[in-house]
Amino acid sequence: MSEKEIRSVLATDCGSTTTKAILIEKQGDTYRLIVRGEAPTTVEAPFEDVTNGVLNAVMEVEELRGRKIIDDDGRIITPQNGDEGVDVYLSTSSAGGGLQMMVSGVVKQMTGESAERAALGAGAIVMDVIASNDGRAPHEKIKRIRQLRPDMILVSGGIDGGAISHVAEIAEVIAAAEPRPRLGSDYNLPIIYAGNIKARDIVKDRLGKKSSLVITDNIRPVLERENLMPARHKIHDLFMEHVMAQAPGYKKLMGWTSLPIMPTPAAVGYIIETIAKQQDIEVMGVDIGGATTDIFSVFQGIFNRTVSANLGMSYSISNVLAETGLDNVMRWVPFDMDEADLRDRIKNKMIRPTTIPHSLAELKVEQAIAREALRLAFEQHKSLAVGLKGVQQERTISDAFDQKSSGATIIDLKKLNLLVGSGGVLSHAPRRVQAASMLVDSFLPEYVTRLAVDSIFMMPQLGVLASEYPKPATDVFEKDCLIHLGCCIAPVGNAKKLGDPCVTVEYNVKGEHIKREVAYGDLVLIPMDAGEETKATITPSKRFDMGLGKGKEVTKKISGGVVGLLIDARGRPFTMPTDSAERIKRLTAWEIELGLYPR
Amino acid sequence: MAHAYTPGLRVADKALITRERRLPLKGEVLVEKGKEIRAEDIVAKTDLPGNVQIVKAASILGISPEDLPDVMVKKKGEHADKGEVIAMVSSFFGLFKSKVVAPATGTIEAISNVSGQIIMREPPIPVEVVAYIDGWVSEVIPDEGIIMETTGAFVQGIFGIGGEIVGELKTAVANPNDELTADKITPDLKDKVICGGAYVQYDTIKKAIDAGVRGIIVGGFRDSDLRRILGYDLGVAITGQEKIGLTLILTEGFGRMKMAQKTFDLLKRFEGKRVSINGATQIRAGVMRPEIIIPLGEKYSQDLADQEHVASGGLMVGSIIRVIREPHFGELAEVIDLPPELTVVESETKVRVLKARFDDGEEMLMPRANVEMIES
Question: Is there a contact between B135 and B154 (Cβ–Cβ < 8 Å)?
């Protein structure tokens, strides 16, 4: 069906706990979200059929919309016939723990990293990276492969035409481990080989009989170039054929959908990429869940995704504390707390992950932990979203001065145009300004950045839709999916002392002239409605930079949102006072200025 | 009547309990269907493939990989003892010899003329699976294992560490609000599983380990003590593999918390009985909670099946609940109303709530997500 002919789209996302359905319909020239429904996912016992949950969620949509979508045999009606059914039905899935992969390369920092990026980009959780130089003895690698039982392994290594002995070595290690797939023991583990073209026969010989081996183009044909798409496509194909086909009810579901079922994070990646391309902007998205935090970015046209598998707000909440340490969590809590008490509270959330903060103090602690989870996930993202390592670069004199090496991160907060947050703690924060504050504190955006949250986390469904039909996907993304919070203005630099001049912001909106001088250390919120857009003159003081150099005035486009315009004059790099009383004083001042919590 | 679903931990006087006892790989099942067996009996066994050792032989010998097959002393499929020469080159008319010795006892599995590696496989590792609970073999899964069945008292804990153990149940405190202190750990508790009321601290656990106690069941325990015992901060709740010397099960949560009266009474009633406990906890897709099973030596009956069915109801006015988040964490209360509309609570979160009455008569609205039912 051509994009123009589409009148309605039904999309479901089968998550580990909830299956969410959305119905999109064409209204005039644009597509809008009409209703949504949800139901518990039914992959596990006693139901063991994912389609039960899908039908339950769709039934809710039917009831709310008041029209028939499921036929009498319990199937989704496609295409739309009069007022019944939908033209397109599609689905994403992360049920059963999503797609778990192991990857391997010869040199960890080169082909190993490329393989990791390919798997992450395809929506996988990377359980481990095996490489010739990863510092482990062969028997340790074998033990690890056996222990992990991935859904799939991606083997890379070497540039085309290079030496083959290291690739053979890796293939032999994997063969010796006799890896078994995670789900079911009746089929062979899928392995994708995307390495040196010359080593294909060797790999076939070593792994052909012990696995379902698929060979595709090298992800690093030459040192200077990555070619991740063929491997990413193969991962999707095998995800459908092997992994999904093993999960209960998926064969049936696959027969219903108009497009292949996509792993949820891969779909989110698609929509972020589409938006970045269409609007020609640098975008970053974060999805913080109970168990994991995913970050997606497009900088310089390059898409990157990372999954922090053990950073989350419920199942993994304890791990956030273990990784960041108590002091880092406490620096965001605006009151003193006994360490042992805080530890117990966090553990109690971990063992009872579905509980909700009832008291205000509990909410503040939870949002403090969220800031650290987001910060750590962002650190991990920066370290993987890098230029290719091992590449000789031509250097000019100015490069020699700034000491940039190959493999530096491509994440540049100064160029970031849009930061989108999603996941319960951000999307469902009782006040939207809390989401804005958590995003700013953890990502520390620089210069001018638009902030938004995904209202009901429908980016996965829109992503899979965008892969074939970009217009309906982007229409809904702009109009119904994103809640624009506003803009953050953050000058880079630090003054000598708190209260020194930092920045002056001037603009006209609704016929009114606004001028605001903000001192170093302050965080200021100026209301500015969603839909308002204007040019602002931003003048940093002599120790601060807004993009043209210290003290240099700039003119930038700013836009409003449900929160407004946030001027963050706390300095970059940002530091929090270590003295407890001083810290609480400043946190409380920011809290009052932003109206973060009821008082 | 208003009715809602809320998860709860089971505390049952009598329940039908089945447990799958499966080998990690196919092997041999040693018991027959219908047979009565004890927890310690081995029900199935198999051999796991041995560990693999890889030797970078070509580089040790200073030869190119393609020459490796020609210098092998032991051929593919042959056995070699640890330290035995498996490949050798001589140079300078035999004056200098370079050797590769077997890193472990095993067989030569592969010799690679591309990578120059020798792959050796150690002897298979035997694995046995025990019954874990006293009871009957209700089903045999050919070549893989069995399903054990028993009727017994059953308690689910909230968190545990340490794996499956069996021992005699002993109550070491007078009431569920008591702390299990170090002075209560006496030599006669050796090999016992002890029930310890509201709280236990690090020093008591250490003393219990030294005294040979097999398991401790207690209401609460502090995370700071957990870190001392494990030697690391537990990040993700996947437990059961810890080797601390005993199995620890918490019935209520982290902190000092009175053990639910019903749980305490049940454990006290079965004092002296054999009990099977497992601390394994997994809080993610496919939730697994620690468990306490006290087999009663009776076979399954239809009456019991009916009882089971009745027991699994939802949250209703009159249900007894436990609060599982601050404020009032750990306290028991009775549901007195289930308003259907979304309500804004102190944190400004808009949620479905219930109204509950505590023992002292205080009434309070709280999120439904923050309670669990005390199931029977």
Answer: no
- CB–CB contact A318 B236 (8 Å): yes
Contacts of A449 (CB under 8 A, 6+ apart): A413, A416, A417, A418, A419, A487, A488, A490
**A596 and A565 in contact (C-beta within 8 Å)?**
no
* Cα separation values, A87 from A52, A182, A359, B126, Å: 21, 36, 46, 57
- B148 inside domain: no
Query: Do the domain assignments include residue B117?
Result: yes
- Chain A CB contacts of B286 under 8 Å are 44
Q: Do A322 and B233 touch (CB under 8 A)?
A: yes
Among A71-75, A176-180, A281-285, B99-103, whose mean pLDDT is lowest? A176-180
pLDDT tens digits for range B157-193: 999 999 999 999 999 999 999 999 999 999 999 999 9
**Kind of pairing between the strands at B42-48 and B28-29:** antiparallel
Q: Kindly state whether residue B284 falls inside one of the protein's structural domains.
A: yes
- Closest to B44 (Cα-Cα) out of B148, B150, B151: B148
B200 and B269 housed in the same domain: yes
Chain B residues near residue A359 by CB distance under 8 angstroms: 326-327, 346-347
Number of domains into which chain B is organized: 3
| Residue at token pair 């995370």 | B223
Residues of chain A with pLDDT > 70, as a percent, come to: 95
Same domain assignment for residues B191 and B274? yes
At A180 the three-state DSSP class reads coil
Please report the residues numbered 410 through 429 in chain A whose beta carbons come closer than 8 angstroms to any beta carbon of chain B.
Answer: 428
Structural tokens at position A563:
């929160």
The two three-digit tokens of residue A392, written as one number: 């000789």
Q: Which of A122, A58, A102, A45 is nearest to A84 (CA)?
A: A58
A56 inside 8 A of chain B by CB: no
Q: To the nearest 5 percent, what fractions of chain B are helix, strand and coil? A: 15, 45, 40
Which residues of B fall within a CB distance of 8 Å from A597? 348
pLDDT at B286: 58
Same domain, B165 and B249: yes
Top-confidence residue, B26 or A326: A326
C-alpha to C-alpha distance for A289 and A317, rounded to whole angstroms:
10
Mean predicted confidence (pLDDT) in A247-265? 87
Q: Pick the last residue of a domain from B256, B289, B322.
A: B289
Question: Smallest CA–CA separation between A115 and chain B, in Å?
Answer: 21
Nearest by CB: B283 against A17, A168, A315: A315
Is A148 near chain B, with CB under 8 Å?
no
**Is the reported ipTM for this assembly greater than 0.95?**
no
What CATH number has the domain bearing residue B200?
Answer: 3.50.30
Which of B120, B232, B348 best probes binding to A when mutated, by most A CB atoms within 10 angstroms?
A: B348
- Same domain? For B363 and B265 the reply is no
Q: What structural domains does chain A harbor?
A: 3-95 (3.30.420.40), 98-246 (3.40.50.280), 283-594 (no CATH)
Judging contacts by C-beta atoms under 8 Å, the chain B residues touching residue A363 are: 347-349
CB proximity under 8 Å: B 344-363 to A? 345-351
Please determine, for residue A533, whether its predicted confidence score (pLDDT) is greater than 80: yes
Q: In this predicted model, which residue has the larger pLDDT, A358 or A401? A: A358
Residues B162, B262: one domain? yes
Measured between CB atoms, does A581 come within 8 Å of chain B? no
Q: What digits encode the pLDDT tens for the residues A70-109?
A: 999 889 999 999 999 999 999 998 776 678 899 999 988 8
For residue B48, the model assigns a pLDDT of 79
Cβ of residue B191 closer than 8 Å to a chain A Cβ: no
Range of the domain at B77: 52-121
* Residue B144 DSSP one-character state: T
CB contact under 8 A, A176 and B222: no
Residue contact A351–B158, C-beta within 8 A: yes
Within an 8 Å CB–CB cutoff, is residue A247 touching chain B? no
